[in-house]
Each structure stands twice: as structure tokens, then as C-alpha cells.
Write a structure and sequence with these properties.
Helix content: 55-70%
Strand content: under 5%
Largest sheet: 2 strands, antiparallel
Distance between the termini: 39 Å
Radius of gyration: 18 Å
Shape: globular
Strand order of the largest sheet: 1-2
Length: 317
């Protein structure tokens, strides 16, 4: 990688990081106003004490919203309290890091020097659309359907869950983004599925402070080369900006941040991959998604010394 390319990639990361940090700090002080219409199941969960119900490895498509900290009828503080959740320690954390990451990464990609128009459109669109549908699930979803199988079962019964909506939007966004960086239909379809699968896998990992962010940083060798390098750099820059508050248990990524993070990393990889590499990419994320229906990633991590040490790095046990 030449010096000029290194400078451009570093600039993308710096722009995205600065934007993400700015959005996070601003929204932690004054969260954006939202109109939240919670479902009956989510409302029932919201009345419980979050400290008494630790965050578990529940629904990879709608994990965090059932731990709403606000109480029904608290209209005066509704905009702020709608953004609060209880994490697995019982600490009150804010969801604003998720939309801040998605928006900051979009800013970084939009201003990235040397990025072609198709890749720029794919990166900005992926960040904003996946972040938006993830936030929709964060703020309005419930835990009545768990996992991919649960959402598909609900759909067969005629019930459209927030998780089902999210799966559909992420799938279409992944396909569109991959098509913009592909030369043929086959590569676009395989790449789109890989992007969507990557979004889901990253969300599956967002169950402990900093876990998704650290996993994202391990992607650096895969996303900082090739035509998708500016997208990867902007994504990692945004992640670095969120890590201190995430590890300090002041914020969490939620679906908005984790899904957008995974989709952008997947897109950056797809942009540099050929047909065979995309097939391997898709096989890996598919295998991990299917495994998650049977195996707890948290138990695997806690039972593997190297993974456990990395997972606990920078946070309290």
C-alpha cells in the first residue's frame, strides 16, 4: 500500500471517528426525540427491573429492546428514557452509540477521498439503512420471537415481527450494496447474502461490553485493502470512537450499531473478494448463524482461555 493510499485510508478513519464521537457525546447529553409505540410484550418487559433480569443471549434480531429502562406513563422524560437499557451487569446504558456509529461511518464513507461513486453509494446506503432498521428494532421490538427460526415461524403464522422487518431490509440492502460493487448477478447475490449474514453475526456477538468492537478491529487485515478499504477504514474509525464508552458501560451498540457494523465490514470484504472468496465468506457467516441457534457464543468464549482474555480486555468481568 503506497503512502498516498495509507494517508487516504487514515483520513477516512479519522473523519468517521471524529463524527461518531461527536454524535455520541451530543446524543448522550440530549438524545434525539423519538415516538416509541411498544408492543404488549415489550411493555411488560419494560416494567421489570433490568438488574434482576441480566442480558442473555436471546434474539439475535431483537436482543436489546426488551430491557427498556423507562416506565410506562413517564411522558416528561420519554425522549431520554426511551434510549436507556440495562446491560448484563444491571448498569444503565444508552443506545445512542448505535446510531452514532452508523451515522459517523456514513459521514466517513461519504467524504472518503478516492472512492468510486458506486462503492460510496453502497457504503453510505448500507450504514444508514441498516442502522435505521436496527434502531427501529431497538426501540420498538420485543422478545416474543427469538432467533431466525422464531421469526420465520411467526411469519408462517401471519405475524410480521420487527425482527422479520429487519431481516428483510438488511437482506435487500446487502443485495443492493453488493450489486453496486459487483460485475455480475451471481457475485451480487452471493455478496449480498454475505453482507446480510455478516450483519447478523456481529449482532450475535454484541452481548458484552466491547465484544463486537474488538471483533471488528480483528477484521483490519481483511477490510483495509482493496477497493473497499475506505469503507473498512471509516467503519473501524467509528468503532474506535465508540469503544471507550462501550467498555465503560455508558453506552451499547444495540442492533443499530452492531448490525450496521457487521454489514459495513461485510461490504468492505465483498468489494475486494472474487467469486470463490465470496462463496467462502457466505459459508462462514451461514455456519455461524446456524450454530448460534444451537450453541451460545458467550459460553464458547468463556470456555476458551484466549477468547475469554480478549473478551475481558478493557472491561470488568
Amino acid at each position: 500500500m503506497g503512502l498516498g493510499r495509507v494517508v487516504r485510508v487514515a483520513a477516512c478513519a479519522a473523519i468517521a471517528g471524529a463524527a461518531t464521537w461527536g454524535f455520541t457525546q451530543r446524543w448522550m447529553r440530549r438524545p434525539p426525540p423519538v415516538v416509541v409505540e411498544m408492543s404488549p410484550a415489550a411493555t411488560a418487559d419494560a416494567t421489570r427491573s433490568g438488574a434482576d433480569e441480566p442480558l442473555g443471549e436471546r434474539d439475535p434480531f431483537s436482543e436489546q429492546s426488551q430491557y427498556a429502562h423507562r416506565q410506562p406513563g413517564d411522558e416528561q422524560d420519554q425522549p431520554a428514557s426511551a434510549w436507556l437499557r440495562k446491560n448484563f451487569h444491571g448498569e444503565t446504558v444508552s443506545l445512542v452509540a448505535g446510531p452514532a456509529l452508523a451515522t459517523g461511518a456514513a459521514v466517513g464513507v461519504a467524504l472518503a477521498p478516492g472512492l468510486n461513486r458506486c462503492a460510496r453509494t453502497a457504503g453510505v446506503g448500507t450504514a444508514l439503512l441498516v442502522g435505521a432498521v436496527g434502531l427501529y428494532d431497538d426501540l420498538t421490538g420485543d422478545s416474543s420471537s427469538k432467533g431466525l427460526g422464531g421469526h420465520l415461524a411467526a411469519l408462517r403464522e401471519g405475524q410480521v415481527t420487527t425482527g422479520t422487518v429487519k431481516v428483510g431490509v438488511i437482506g435487500l440492502t446487502g443485495l443492493t450494496g453488493a450489486a453496486l460493487v459487483s460485475e455480475n448477478l451471481f457475485d451480487a447475490v452471493v455478496g449480498g447474502a454475505a453482507v446480510a449474514g455478516h450483519a447478523n453475526v456481529m449482532n450475535l456477538l454484541d452481548l458484552r461490553p466491547g465484544r463486537a468492537g474488538k471483533t471488528a478491529l480483528l477484521h483490519a487485515p481483511l477490510v483495509l485493502t482493496g477497493t473497499g478499504a475506505p469503507i473498512g477504514a471509516a467503519t473501524l474509525g467509528a468503532v474506535v470512537a465508540t469503544l471507550p464508552d462501550d467498555l465503560g458501560e455508558r453506552t451499547m451498540l444495540g442492533d443499530a450499531g452492531a448490525n450496521a457494523l457487521g454489514a459495513l465490514l461485510g461490504l468492505a470484504m465483498v468489494a475486494r473478494e472474487g467469486s470463490r472468496s465470496r462463496l467462502l465468506h457466505l459459508a462462514v457467516v451461514t455456519a455461524l448463524t446456524l450454530a448460534s441457534e444451537k450453541v451460545s457464543f458467550t459460553k464458547v468464549i468463556e470456555g476458551t482461555p484466549v477468547l475469554r482474555q480478549l473478551d475481558q480486555l478493557g472491561r470488568r468481568p
